[in-house]
Design brief:
Strand order of the largest sheet: 1-2-8-5-3
Mean pLDDT: 84
Radius of gyration: 23 Å
Organism: Melia azedarach
Distance between the termini: 44 Å
Oligomer: single chain
Protein name: Cytochrome P450
Low-confidence stretches: 1-32, 126-138
Strand content: 5-15%
Order of helices and strands: HHHHEEHEHHHHEHHHHHHHHEEEEHEEEE
Helix content: 40-55%
C-alpha cells in the first residue's frame, strides 16, 4: 500500500477515534428504542467493527470475525457495524435460506458506496442505485444461459491452449495468480465484448485493476488514495465501454455483420440503454474475472499439495483427451464427463471461497430467530458460517472432494455462488471456464509449489502474497 493511501485510511480512522473519544461511552451504552435487536455491538463511532473484520482477513483468518461473534452472541444472527452501516449477519444454512428466499420480500440488493461510486455510472447511482443493483445480478441474458454458453466451449478451449503455450510453456517457473487473472480477463473481453486485440485487452485491464483495488477501500476521494484512483479508473472504463456499445449499435442499425453474439450485442437486442449495458458489463467483469481467477489459482495450489487428487483429475482428463481426434476442441459432452474434477473445484471453493458473501438491505421491519431487523438495516450472508462448520462438513479443514459426490452437501450449506433469485448469473460460465482450464493445464503440465507455506491474505478474496510461483514440468505427448 502506498504511503499516502496508508495515511488517509489509517490516520483518518484514528483521528475520528480521537475526536469521538468522549462520546464512546454514551454511544456504546445507550439503550435502543427496540430492545429486540440481535445481540452484538456496533463498535466504534463511524468505524464500527470494519477494522477488526479487515485485519482478521489480512491475517488470513476471514472466518475468525464470524466465529468469534457466533460463539459469543448467537449461532443464528448477530449485530455489528461494517462500512458505516448497522448490520445483521444471518448465520448458518437457515440464515442463508432466509436471505436467499427473502429477496424482494424482506430484503433487496445493496452495494457499498465505494463500489457504486467507483464503477457505476453516476446518474444511475444518484437516481436508481437500488433498482440498478437489484437488476444487475438477477438479470440473466440469453448469452449466459447454459444452452448458449455451450457453444463457447471451443473458444474457451482454444484460448486456454493459446494462453498456456504463450505464458507457461516457455518457462520453468511461473506465477499462477497473475497469469490466471490475465487469462480470465482476456476471455471475458472476448466473450463479453468480442475484444480480441491484446493491446485493447490491456487498455481495459489496467484501469480495471485500479478500479477493483478500491472497491472495499475507505471512500475518501482525495488525490493519491486508492479510492480516488478507483473512481478515475472507473470513469475510463465506462468511456471505453460506451465507445464499444455505440459502435456495436451502429453496426446493428446498419444491418452489418457485427461478428459473434457476445454479451454487449445480447443486451442491445434486449433493448437496454448504454448506461444499463455499461453497468452490467462492469458487474459481470467483477463477478467473472476476480472470482474465477482466484478459483483457478487455488485449484492449481491444491493439486500441487495433494498428488493423489492430481492423479485422479489427470486420469479423468486424459480419458477425455484420448477420446478426441487431433485438432478437435472440447465440447459440452466432454465437460459433463468432468465429474471428479468438479468435485475438486467445489472442495477448493469450500475451503478457499473466491467471494465472502453479499449484502442486502431490509425493505421492512422483519423478525428472524426471535430478533427484529429494522427497515434500512443492512444484512450480510457469508460463506464463513457454513463452509467450515463441522455441523455441515465433518473434519472441515480436511481436503476431501468426495463430499460433493452423489447428492452432495445439504442445501444452503455450500454457497460460493449465493442462492435464490440472486444466485450468481455467471455460475455456469464460471464452471465451464474453470473446467476447460483444468483440462488443459493438467494434461500439459505437472508442477510443484516453489514456496511451501506461502502466506495467504483475504483482501477480500484469498490472494497468495507471492503470486503462487510453481515449477513446471511438461508432460510428454
Amino acid at each position: 500500500m502506498e504511503i499516502l493511501d496508508f495515511f488517509y485510511q489509517y490516520f483518518f480512522h484514528f483521528a475520528i477515534l480521537y475526536v469521538s473519544f468522549a462520546l464512546i461511552y454514551v454511544y456504546s451504552t445507550r439503550k435502543s428504542s427496540n430492545p429486540n435487536l440481535p445481540p452484538g455491538k456496533k463498535g466504534l463511532p463511524f468505524i464500527g467493527e470494519t477494522l477488526s473484520y479487515v485485519l482478521d482477513s489480512r491475517k488470513g483468518l476471514p472466518e475468525k470475525f464470524i466465529t468469534e461473534r457466533t460463539s459469543k452472541y448467537s449461532p443464528d444472527v448477530f449485530r455489528t457495524s461494517l462500512l458505516g452501516e448497522d448490520m445483521a449477519v444471518l448465520c448458518g444454512a437457515a440464515g442463508n435460506k432466509f436471505l436467499f428466499s427473502g429477496q424482494n420480500k424482506y430484503v433487496t440488493s445493496w452495494w457499498p458506496d465505494s463500489i457504486k461510486k467507483a464503477l457505476m455510472d453516476p446518474s444511475s447511482v444518484d437516481n436508481s442505485s437500488k433498482e440498478e443493483s437489484t437488476k444487475l445480478r438477477s438479470y440473466l441474458p440469453p448469452f449466459l444461459k447454459p444452452e448458449s454458453l455451450q457453444h463457447y466451449i471451443p473458444v474457451m478451449d482454444s484460448m486456454a491452449k493459446e494462453h498456456l503455450q504463450k505464458e507457461w510453456s516457455p518457462y520453468n517457473e511461473v506465477k499462477v495468480f497473475p497469469l490466471s487473472k490475465k487469462y480470465t480477463f482476456a476471455l471475458a473481453c472476448r466473450l463479453f465484448m468480442s475484444v480480441k486485440d491484446p493491446q485493447q485487452v490491456t487498455n481495459f485491464a489496467e484501469p480495471f485493476a485500479l478500479a477493483t483495488a478500491g472497491l472495499m477501500s475507505v471512500p475518501i476521494n482525495l488525490p493519491g488514495t486508492t479510492f480516488n484512483k478507483a473512481v478515475k479508473a472507473g470513469k475510463v472504463i465506462r468511456e471505453r465501454l460506451h465507445a464499444i456499445i455505440r459502435k456495436r449499435k451502429m453496426e446493428l442499425e446498419e444491418n452489418r455483420d457485427s461478428g459473434e453474439m457476445d454479451l454487449v450485442t445480447s443486451m442491445i437486442l434486449d433493448g437496454m440503454n448504454e448506461i444499463e449495458i455499461a453497468n452490467k458489463i462492469v458487474g459481470f467483469f467483477i463477478a467473472s474475472h476476480d472470482t474465477t481467477s482466484t478459483a483457478i489459482t487455488f485449484i492449481v495450489k491444491c493439486l500441487a499439495e495433494y498428488p493423489d487428487v492430481y492423479r485422479k483429475v489427470f486420469e479423468e482428463q486424459m480419458e477425455i483427451s484420448e477420446s478426441k481426434k487431433p485438432g478437435d476442441m472440447l465440447n459440452w459432452e466432454d465437460v459433463q464427463k468432468m465429474k471428479y474434477s468438479w468435485c475438486v473445484v467445489c472442495e477448493v471453493m469450500r475451503l478457499s471461497p473466491p467471494a465472502n458473501g453479499a449484502f442486502r438491505e431490509a425493505m421492512i421491519d422483519f423478525t428472524y430467530a426471535g430478533y427484529t431487523i429494522p427497515k434500512g438495516w443492512k444484512t450480510f450472508w457469508t460463506v464463513h458460517t457454513t463452509h467450515k462448520n463441522p455441523k455441515y462438513f465433518p473434519e472441515p479443514e480436511k481436503f476431501d472432494p468426495s463430499r460433493f459426490e452423489g447428492t452432495g452437501p445439504a442445501p444452503y450449506t455450500f454457497v460460493p455462488f449465493g442462492g435464490g433469485p440472486r444466485m450468481c448469473p455467471g455460475k455456469e460460465y464460471a464452471r465451464l471456464e474453470i473446467l476447460v482450464f483444468i483440462h488443459n493445464v493438467v494434461t500439459k503440465f505437472k508442477w510443484e509449489k516453489v514456496i511451501p507455506n506461502e502466506k495467504i491474505e483475504y483482501i477480500p478474496s484469498p490472494i497468495p502474497m507471492e503470486g503462487l510461483p510453481v515449477s513446471l514440468k511438461t508432460i510428454e505427448a
